[in-house]
Each structure stands twice: as C-alpha cells, then as structure tokens.
Amino acid sequence: MHIAIAGNIGSGKTTLTRLLAKHFGWEPHYEDVENNPYLHSFYEDMQRWSFNLQVYFLNSRFRQIIEIRNSGKTVVQDRTIYEDAYIFAPNLHAMNLMSTRDFENYSSLFALMSNFIKPPDLLIYLRSSVPTLVKQIQKRGREYEASIRLDYLNHLNERYEAWIGKYSIGKLLIVEMDDLNLEKPTDLGKVIERINAELHGLF
C-alpha cells in the first residue's frame, strides 16, 4: 500500500511521515533534501536554477514511486510527484522564475511519466495557514529556507487548495494543521484514528 503526505513547505509532512512509520511499522520514504545538489543554489537564484531543481525532483520522485510499487511493502511517502507538477513548477512559471520553454518541456516530461504511475492509495493533505508555515520553517532553521518570501508561500497555498479541490484520482484525507501539534500523543492519535477509518472503514 502507498500512503502519501502532501502539503506546503513547513506543514509537517516529514514529521508525520516519521511518526506514522513508527506507529504502523510502515516504511518511510523521505524527500531528498539533504542530497539535493540544486536546492541551495535554487534559493540563492530561483530563476537560474528552477528548471534544474524541478527536473531533479521529478526524476527522484518517479524513481521513488517505481520502488514503492515494486517493494510490495506499505510505504508512507513525504511529498508526491503531483505537487511538483501541479504546484511548484506552475508557480515558478507564473512568477516568471521559469521560462515558458522550460515549463513546457517539464510539463511534457511529467505527462509522459504520469502514464506509468498509479496514484497513492491514500493522500493525506496537511492544510496550514502561512503564519503556521513560517513558524515551522523558522523553528527547524534550515539555512537555505531563511530567504523564502511570504508571497511565495502564499501562492503555493493557493495552488495547493486549487489542486486538492479537484483531486479525484484516489482517497483523500485533509488534516487541518493550524491547531494541531503532531508531537502531542492526543493530537497524533486523532490523525491516526482518521487514517484507520479511511484505510479500513469504520467498524
């Protein structure tokens, strides 16, 4: 089974991936942040590195999906291939940080790849307001994220809402994150209860 966690930068995806893997004994697949050769460069010069970064993520996540399906295990994945294609790349293009030529090339690659992948069995969307995102980003203190602009986070949130509003390729669970602390057992318990209901039904 493939469970995927979607959400904006700082919404809690990695934390929930780790906690669910521990609770259910699922195999976690994390976003390739530490080994990503483009991420630091991208935050220094978005226009120059946007296409390279998005193609790297597309390749990395396509490979992950193939591995997940071939493993035969239940896997919980931190961020999906769809977020790159429907949120991050179009947002960079709209902000004039990716050229139309590069965006069309990227979109063509994704369209080809999407013919070979299945959607997750359950998509968990972590919905967060921009102030919550900022608080979380500051708390974890990644140096390269210090320059993220508020309007950038806001545009991403708008695109997430538009994508989730039309999501129809599989089961979807929306978790409101503003008043939730996943490190608190009671809050995590509520989320786990809802995941169980989605995956196994209510008995």
Number of domains: 1
Q: What does the largest sheet look like?
A: 5 strands, parallel
Helix content: 55-70%
Unreliable segments of 5+ consecutive residues: none
How many strand segments? 5
CATH fold name: Rossmann fold
Helix and strand string, N-terminal first? Answer: EHEHHEHHEHHEH
> At the first level of CATH, what is the class?
Alpha Beta
Q: Which percent range describes the beta-strand content?
A: 5-15%
- Which structural class matches the secondary elements? alpha/beta
Radius of gyration, whole Å: 17 Å
Number of separate helices: 8
Termini separation (Å)?
21 Å
Mind telling me the CATH superfamily name? P-loop containing nucleotide triphosphate hydrolases
Estimate the mean pLDDT confidence. Answer: 91
Basic shape: globular
What is the gist of this entry?
With 203 residues, the chain is an alpha/beta fold. Helices cover 58% and strands 12% of the residues.
